[in-house]
Write a sequence for this structure.
């Protein structure tokens, strides 16, 4: 079954000229072979009949001579008669039989090898007309074999001559037909390469018509291509111009956003410090309530700026995964502590199921993803609650965050991970509320991309939403401590004192300096304040011992920055040394600045900084620099 198809495939691969020659040879060969077969069969049949007729003649001759001899039963004479018959050409054997079937004479050829023979029997009739015996003559068919050989030689010779003739004629015809077609094929290749594709009109009427039609089509295609190329050049130039305009607009937006973010973070940072200072020692319930409202507004603004900062850090490329193996339940416990109070304030349930799974991931990035997801779920849930759980899926661990919130319509689900895209309760988009800017899920998507995973979302309107994150699973490691929590803005309750701790505060904003002095003094610290590098170096000239901690803003007056001031204090003869903790505080969100801060190796906090976070950071840096001395 497969051989005919294979032969057909090979035939299709032949060139047009080869196929035409083959089509000419096949009928010629079939016709020649058929004709030769018929003629050969007739010729061989005639030769065989001729040999039969010769054998019959010899048999009749022997029978005539043996007529009188068999009547007298002269065996010797009969033997001579049989021998005389065997001397005839091509006779192999002659036998004379009596009427009762007895062989009375037999003569065979002994001087040559006997081959296939043809036997003929002739009766011996007496004078009275009765049969007195019979004669059998066996005639050799060597002549027929020789005739066959001669015929086959002639067949091969004639077939070869005819095929050569037909092949030459077919090749000449095929060349006449295929040459113009091959020229058209080459012209098509030139046309595809954008070159001149006109062909010379020649050949038969049909081929000339085909060539003329091709030339017209080639001219039309060339004109269309030239017109299209000119349009492409124009469109490319226009697109480049628009891209340049978009790039300029994007850079202007980035600069505006960074400048606005930095300028707004400064007073917000001061407001954060002063609100904490107002609450210190206050006992009037009405004032405490107002201070609490101020703190809520500050915290809301803090979340907005944190979302912007997260995207700025991702755009700057300063965040890179720090892979570690840790128990997922450690992170789940942290999420439960961070959001349980928030859920209870909204009369919601937050259920974080225990798990024994271990994962290999970046603890900070995964924590930020889950914190954003849980915060987003609580924000859009009015009754019921939020469920956080994990289950194994092959070699990975799938973390699910379920809520019973308002849900997301199908036509919004593909866009909720875009920046600044929000869905209002009644389905209108583009709005903003005091609780977010539509950046939480965009941050989740980018962090997931850094972790080489993806976030899947499924939701039903008015039924709830489920967001799934799959991370790599690993085997539990006994005795491995949990990774430290280093998320900017993480609130860690610590009521420890900073008594007898000397703190140098450097910031070009007078209100921020005053706020820091109030907060740090309330914690028992000894505070020194400077607005510029020269003021900080002047303080270094007069202090009896270096400060324990230096807290400096990044951007200072006159283009100076906190990193350079810290370096100048390190070079000062009476300046800071390895025993002094260093901490940068900045409201900068420009990508190049973020990369500069990340590469400096100095711990950094991003404004606005809550007093709790500031105190925890100072205590952490103090513990770090004092650890070698312990």
């Amino acid at each position: 079954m497969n051989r005919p198809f294979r032969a057909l495939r090979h035939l299709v691969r032949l060139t047009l000229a080869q196929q035409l020659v083959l089509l000419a040879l096949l009928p010629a060969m079939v016709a020649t072979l058929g004709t030769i077969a018929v003629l050969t069969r007739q010729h061989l049949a005639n030769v065989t009949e001729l040999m039969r007729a010769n054998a019959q003649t010899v048999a009749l001759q022997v029978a005539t001579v043996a007529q009188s001899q068999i009547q007298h039963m002269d065996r010797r004479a009969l033997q001579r008669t049989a021998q005389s018959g065997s001397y005839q050409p091509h006779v192999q054997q002659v036998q004379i039989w009596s009427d009762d079937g007895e062989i009375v004479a037999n003569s065979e050829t002994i001087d040559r090898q006997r081959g296939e023979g043809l036997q003929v029997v002739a009766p011996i009739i007496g004078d009275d007309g009765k049969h007195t015996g019979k004669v059998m003559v066996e005639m050799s068919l060597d002549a027929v074999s020789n005739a066959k050989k001669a015929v086959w030689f002639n067949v091969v010779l004639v077939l070869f001559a005819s095929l050569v003739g037909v092949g030459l004629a077919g090749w000449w015809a095929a060349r006449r037909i295929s040459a113009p077609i091959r020229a058209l094929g080459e012209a098509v290749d030139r046309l595809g390469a954008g070159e001149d594709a006109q062909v010379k009109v020649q050949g038969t009427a049909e081929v000339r018509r085909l060539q003329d039609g091709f030339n017209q089509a080639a001219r039309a295609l060339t004109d269309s291509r030239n017109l299209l190329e000119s349009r492409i050049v124009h469109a490319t130039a226009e697109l480049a111009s628009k891209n340049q305009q978009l790039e300029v607009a994007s850079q202007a937006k980035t600069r505006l956003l960074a400048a606005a973010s930095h300028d707004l973070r400064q007073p917000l940072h001061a407001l954060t410090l002063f609100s904490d200072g107002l609450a210190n020692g206050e006992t009037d319930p009405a004032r405490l309530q107002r201070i609490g409202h101020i703190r809520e507004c500050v915290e809301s603004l803090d979340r907005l700026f944190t979302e912007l900062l997260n995207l700025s850090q991702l755009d700057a490329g300063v965040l890179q995964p720090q892979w570690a193996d840790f128990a997922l339940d450690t992170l789940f416990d942290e999420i439960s502590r961070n959001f349980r109070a928030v859920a209870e304030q909204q009369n919601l349930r937050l259920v974080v199921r225990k798990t024994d799974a271990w994962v290999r991931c970046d603890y900070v990035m995964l924590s930020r993803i889950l914190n954003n997801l849980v915060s987003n779920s609580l924000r859009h849930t009015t009754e019921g609650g939020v469920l956080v759980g994990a289950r194994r899926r092959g070699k990975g661990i799938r973390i699910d965050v379920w809520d019973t919130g308002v849900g997301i319509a199908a036509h919004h689900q593909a866009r909720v991970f875009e920046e600044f895209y929000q869905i209002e309760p009644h389905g209108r988009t583009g709005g903003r509320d005091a609780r977010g800017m539509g950046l939480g899920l965009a941050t989740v998507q980018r962090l997931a991309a850094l972790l080489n995973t993806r976030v899947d979302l499924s939701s039903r309107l008015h039924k709830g939403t489920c967001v799934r994150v799959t991370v790599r699973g690993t085997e539990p490691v006994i005795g491995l401590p949990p990774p430290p929590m280093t998320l900017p803005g993480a609130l860690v309750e610590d009521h420890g004192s900073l008594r007898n701790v000397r703190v140098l505060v450097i910031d070009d904003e007078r209100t921020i300096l005053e706020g820091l002095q109030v907060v740090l003094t309330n914690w028992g610290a000894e505070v020194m304040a400077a607005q510029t590098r020269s003021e900080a170096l002047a303080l270094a000239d007069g202090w009896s011992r270096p400060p324990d901690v230096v807290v400096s803003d990044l951007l200072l007056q006159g283009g100076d920055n906190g990193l350079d001031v810290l370096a100048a204090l390190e070079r000062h003869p009476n300046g800071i040394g390895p025993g002094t903790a260093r901490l940068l505080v900045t409201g900068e969100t420009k990508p190049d600045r973020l990369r500069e801060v990340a590469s400096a190796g100095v711990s950094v906090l991003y404004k606005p900084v809550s007093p709790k976070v500031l105190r925890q950071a100072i205590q952490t840096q103090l513990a770090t620099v004092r650890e070698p001395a312990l």
